[in-house]
Design goal:
Helix content: 40-55%
Number of helices: 14
Number of strands: 9
CATH superfamily: HybD-like
Distance between the termini: 54 Å
Largest sheet: 9 strands, mixed
CATH topology: Rossmann fold
Radius of gyration: 21 Å
Number of domains: 1
Order of helices and strands: HHEEHEHEHHEHHEEHEHHHEHH
Shape: elongated
CATH class: Alpha Beta
Length: 328
């Protein structure tokens, strides 16, 4: 079974544009029409930019026109401050390019997710580690001018906790605060185990909260909020159907390459793979999400990196020592 067939059959959500692009290009053997990809290899990260430029690209990729930047940094798993700092600076550079902020721009940070569920707590953890400054401008605007931008933040929770659509909460805040940008941080679902906790996606097209775990909510984008939206996402879970499919694919590859088992491979009915997957995943079908046991550590590391990159991008006029002073 092709991976695209698996995704369609089990309704598996692929949140990362780079993975959707890999699947489409890998199965067709051709470039995806209307989509441009640029890859940059750095010392501690690989930066891949996917630009969806035409309506055909929108149809092929299943997501809006715009730029999707993925920073793959496997060393996030390691407890190495210097490496994490380099990844933070790489992320900050990409944020600066996407946001193109003016000196007096204002930003609302939104930490999406459920702080009570570790795989979904990335957004709230980033907010907890971020420097908010909007209130400071009421007391000493002259001192802060040229050093800090007006930044406010909210972790609105999820529908099951608040009883309110997250987009409704954010829209109400936006109408009052009137930020130039909303930056929404959320956990994503990966299409590969390798990317859990180690790939950061930036998208200037907004975000659909809960889509990675099958809970589709009202979109948070320029159309719904009335201001520009940048989404920052990190994969924290992978659909069990993906893992099961990878195991069966490896098994089939073993049959294909083994002379003694090649006959069995030729006689194997592809439909049987679908039946095996359905039985293995029953009764959860395509709704079983899996996270590694060290997900709490991965999220803490990623939250520090994302919050640090936001600090560098949003407040370029202060040093690290000053940043810590204002944070306290």
């Amino acid at each position: 079974m092709k991976k695209s067939d698996l995704i369609r059959e089990f309704n598996v959500q692929i949140d990362m544009a780079v993975e959707a692009h890999e699947i489409l290009r890998g199965e067709s053997g051709n470039e995806v029409p209307g989509v441009r990809m640029i890859k940059d290899e750095l010392e501690h990260a690989t930066v891949t930019t996917i630009d969806i430029e035409t309506e055909q690209g929108v149809q092929e990729m299943g997501r809006p026109k715009g730029s999707y930047i993925t920073i793959d940094a496997p060393e996030i798993r390691e407890n190495n401050y210097l490496v994490h700092q380099d990844i933070t600076e790489t992320l900050a550079k990409e944020l600066v390019k996407l946001l193109n902020l003016k000196e007096d721009s204002s930003v609302l940070l939104v930490g999406l997710g459920n702080w009570n569920a570790t795989p979904d707590a990335l957004g709230p953890q980033v907010i907890e580690k971020s420097l908010v400054t909007r209130h400071l401008f009421q007391f000493s605007p002259d001192e802060l001018k040229g050093k800090l931008r007006k930044v406010s933040a909210i972790a609105p929770g999820v529908l099951g906790i608040t009883g309110i659509e997250t987009a409704e909460i954010i829209r109400g805040i936006v109408e009052h605060v009137k930020p130039d940008w909303v930056i929404a941080i959320d956990a994503l679902a990966a299409g590969s185990l390798d990317r859990i906790g180690t790939s950061i996606q930036l998208a200037n097209t907004g975000i659909s909260p809960g889509s990675g775990v099958g809970n589709k909510r009202v979109g948070i984008n320029e159309e719904t909020l009335g201001c520009k939206v940048l989404a920052i996402g990190l994969p924290t879970v992978v659909n069990a159907a993906i893992i099961a499919h990878n195991c069966l694919e490896s098994f089939m590859d073993e049959l294909k390459t083994s002379p003694s088992l090649f006959r069995l491979y030729k006689e194997f009915n592809p439909k049987s793979l679908e039946n095996i997957l359905s039985q293995a995943l029953s009764p959860y079908s395509g709704n079983l999400m899996v996270a590694p046991k060290e997900i709490d550590t991965l999220i803490q590391s990623a939250a520090r990196i994302i919050a640090g990159a936001l600090g560098i991008c949003l407040h370029p006029g202060i040093s690290r020592e000053e940043y810590q002073m204002y944070l306290q």
